[in-house]
Write a structure and sequence with these properties.
Largest sheet of chain B: none
Number of domains of chain A: 2
Oligomer: heterodimer
Structural class of chain A: alpha+beta
Strand content of chain B: under 5%
Radius of gyration of chain A: 25 Å
Strand order of the largest sheet of chain A: 2-1-3-4
Shape of chain B: globular
Radius of gyration of chain B: 27 Å
Strand content of chain A: 5-15%
Number of helices of chain B: 17
Order of helices and strands of chain B: HHHHHHHHHHHHHHHHH
Number of helices of chain A: 10
């Protein structure tokens, strides 16, 4: 049997390409796999390599399957901010709570062509919940309190020199992660308020609700067992200001 | 046991095997330079994943400005830490005009990708355009969005338009020769696609076996009875009404995912694995409404089906579709005939005049 001989340049391509491809797949296996000493020893290079376009994770519905109904609830105060600060006694006009997620999911049942809008608030909920759950109890209290008229949630700008003095590195990391997602949730709540009530809202309150799915063993129970909801609140916050282009997309 | 003299000694066995590494290397090199493998499978992957991307872009067009355009600005602080640098972060501060131009070009690139037009240029461009849109709002992505982003990187190296494409027609017409280096890159791309596919299934299965609800066989009940993934409540009820069915479906999901890479080594088990995984994805698409995710995953599975099988399937489809196409063509032809004026009869010129 005669074998076809490989030319020099293709041979170099095969050798280098093969090494790169094998190294990439090995790195992917380590990056997407569980925490191991090997993975730790390769940090932070591994995280840096997989930042951006190569980012991935394949634990679909695992180890715990998705077993909740997650909702984002929003309400707003439609009076000038000084009046809102005085509360209902001062004549402030507050809206009812709106279940934004339930509204988004209106078009979901029996629809295989649902838009990704149906997932928007759920995606915010999932990320916010995990960041908020990581907070220490004292910070949790601060986050749940009201902070309006420019008052910062944790008493200091988290990217200032004061913050590095006030908090440890670990605390600062935890607080920044939380604040980043709180800003997303409040921004989303502000845009929802803008869409619902025009530019009238001056402050918004966002609340995350979780209802567990009925346990498997009780699925045939009649009447269905009552499930209790869990909540994480973000206290009242100033409405986030956006440019006209952003608002136009929400009109 | 004696190690000297007779033919069964280890030394003799080693002597007989001394050319084996060389033979394996030749075989390996031959495989890489001999042919562009799975070309029909890649054609199917290109067409199916392209159609899924097109559907994704069109279904979301009404809310695109809010999801990925200027209206997604409230994600900006979060986007900062995701590590998308230029050109993938080009839409971060983009106005509506630039965003829509980008979105429409992406649709155009997807159409070119499906048709297999200039894929050597279109595939890398599509990767950049698609990734930039996706990077605007990664949390609403599903596994399909992650997977196709990775696949598009690998497909840059692959000759995805060798079959069933406009490129292949042009190449046949111009008789463009295939370069050995490009063949090597194609086959390396194939290795990457298959390795990634195996890694995804294997890891998804391994993570599942660690979960209590997957172990007790009730895991699939929970997502399909949630509001987000229980798209057809009656189907969810039907599937989870019986404990047996729930446990079987849960275990089937785990077993097929973990076993998938190992079942590819044998022709028979490979077919079982592909049918099993197809069944799983169809169920996910229908019961959970995750059509984009399932479509993208199934499109990649197509590269594991042999070219001979794809040719048979295409032939069968062609035969089945022929009567339908003929029936469709008939009224069109009739309509054309009615619209067109009667062709003028050529004047008969008498030869005698």
């Amino acid at each position: 049997m005669t074998t076809k001989r490989i030319k020099r340049f293709p041979a170099v391509v095969l050798l280098i390409g093969g090494i790169l491809a094998a190294s990439h797949m090995a790195a992917t296996l380590v990056f997407t796999g569980p925490q191991t000493p090997l993975k730790q020893s390769l940090q932070p290079a591994l995280d840096r390599y997989f930042l951006g376009p190569l980012d991935q994770g394949w634990g679909f519905f695992a180890p715990g399957p998705y077993s909740l109904n997650e909702y984002v609830l929003v309400r707003a105060c439609l009076s000038p901010i000084e009046v809102c600060a005085g509360g209902a006694e001062a004549g402030a006009e507050f809206t009812e709570w709106h279940n934004v997620t339930a509204r988004e999911m209106d078009s979901l049942p029996y629809n295989l062509l649902a838009s990704r809008v149906t997932r928007q608030s759920k995606a915010i909920h999932g990320r916010f919940w995990s960041a908020a759950s990581d907070l220490e109890p004292e910070f949790e209290k601060m986050a749940e309190a009201n902070h309006i008229m420019g008052e910062s949630v944790f008493g200091v700008d988290l990217y200032s020199a004061d913050a590095t003095e006030k908090f440890t590195d670990a605390e600062l990391h935890e607080l920044r992660s939380y604040k980043r997602l709180e800003d997303v949730a409040v921004g989303f709540g502000s845009l929802y308020a803008y869409r619902e009530w025009g530019g009238e809202a001056s402050i918004v309150e966002v609340k995350m609700r979780r209802d567990p799915v009925t346990p498997f063993q009780q699925r045939h129970a009649d009447p269905p067992p009552e499930t209790s909801s869990n909540f994480i609140n973000i206290g009242w916050r100033d409405v986030t200001e956006f440019e006209d282009d952003v608002l136009a997309a929400w009109r | 046991m004696s190690t000297t003299g007779n033919d069964k000694s280890i030394r003799n066995w080693l002597r007989r095997q001394q050319n084996e590494p060389r033979r394996i290397l030749d075989h390996l090199v031959g495989w890489f330079i001999g042919n562009r493998h799975a070309d029909y499978g890649f054609a199917v992957m290109r067409i199916v994943s392209g159609i899924c991307l097109l559907k994704w872009l069109l279904v979301n067009i009404g809310a695109a400005a809010r999801l990925w355009g200027p209206g997604s600005f409230y994600w900006d602080g979060y986007r900062e830490i995701l590590g998308y640098t230029w050109p993938f972060n080009i839409l971060r501060d983009a106005g509506p005009g630039f965003f829509w131009l980008w979105y429409i070009i992406t649709i155009g690139l997807v159409v070119a990708f499906v048709l297999g037009w200039r894929t050597r240029f279109v595939t890398p461009l599509l990767f950049v355009f698609y990734t930039a849109i996706n990077a605007q709002n990664t949390p609403i992505s599903d596994g399909g969005n992650y997977f196709i982003r990775i696949m598009l990187i690998y497909l840059i190296f692959v000759d995805i338009s060798r079959r069933w494409s406009l490129d292949s027609r042009r190449r046949t017409r111009k008789q463009v020769p295939e370069r050995e280096t490009a063949t090597i890159l194609h086959n390396l791309g194939l290795c990457l696609v298959v390795a990634q596919l195996c890694l995804v299934y294997f890891e998804a299965g391994m993570y599942k076996v660690q979960g209590t609800l997957w172990q007790n066989g009730t895991a699939i009940y929970y997502p399909i009875n949630s509001e987000m993934y229980g798209v057809f409540p009656f189907l969810s009820d039907l599937l989870t009404a019986s404990t047996w069915l729930t446990v079987l479906a849960t275990y089937f999901t785990v077993v097929i995912q973990i076993a998938f890479p190992f079942m590819l080594f044998n022709r028979i088990t490979r077919r079982v694995a592909l049918i099993g995984i197809l069944l799983m994805h169809v169920s996910i698409a229908v019961v959970m409404g995750l059509t984009f995710f399932s479509g993208i995953m199934v499109s990649a599975d197509a590269v594991l089906v042999s070219s001979a099988t794809w040719v048979v399937i295409a032939g069968w489809l062609g035969r089945k579709c022929e009567p339908v196409l003929r029936r469709l063509r008939r009224p069109v032809r009739r309509a054309v005939k009615e619209v067109e004026p009667e062709p003028k009869k050529p004047e008969v010129v008498s030869s005698r005049s």
